[in-house]
């Protein structure tokens, strides 16, 4: 009996030691998993910032694109001195901007083409919030890469292509490859470096602050002869009133 009790005691002690070792292995595994998870998270954030251009793009030198007039790109139509000036602040990822373009874009283009108005596209990367980079910046930067290289006519073609690409639906974000392809279709085959470098992102951030100083808090926002419209979808009547005055 004594030997049996000793044997049972030895087995119990062995079982206890095994449980302790198992617990130590479990704690070690959990600790390693937590460390690895944290490392993956840090690397993922770093990669994400790099993919978006990161702080490097936002903190680069401010370079104003060529072919910019009063902070925007003017429609190539020739309007006489004194014609009403229509400024439209838009973001290529903005669904309301896409709706505005569908309803009024062609009409405004036609009035500008006929020389009735001065039509000016104004950049506002509002869909990136307060961030200095992001998909809205990428699309806008690509458009101004085109303006810088080939001027207003190519920019207006790129503007139509960006809204036509459907980025405003939110289903897909613009990639560098897709933006370069749209730029090529707009007549600028060599825009890849400008798009990849996000060359005009710092300038776009300054433009965003300038827009906010004009009380532009959403897109689209429309000004006719310097007066902000309360309802952008009343732009036609506002233009007609300006032409009649």
From TrEMBL:
Q: Membrane-spanning regions, if any?
A: 29-49
Chain positions covered by the region annotation Disordered: 1-23
Q: Does the keyword Cell membrane apply?
A: no
Q: Where is the Thioredoxin-like fold domain?
A: 83-231
Q: Which InterPro entries match?
A: Thioredoxin-like_fold, Thioredoxin-like_sf
Query: Is Transmembrane set as a keyword in this record?
Result: yes
Q: Which UniProt keywords apply?
A: Membrane, Transmembrane, Transmembrane helix
Q: Which domain of life is it from?
A: Bacteria
Q: Which CDD domains match?
A: DsbA_family (cd02972)
Q: Which Pfam families match?
A: Thioredoxin_4
* Descriptive protein name: Thioredoxin domain-containing protein
Q: Which organism is it from?
A: Aeromicrobium phoceense
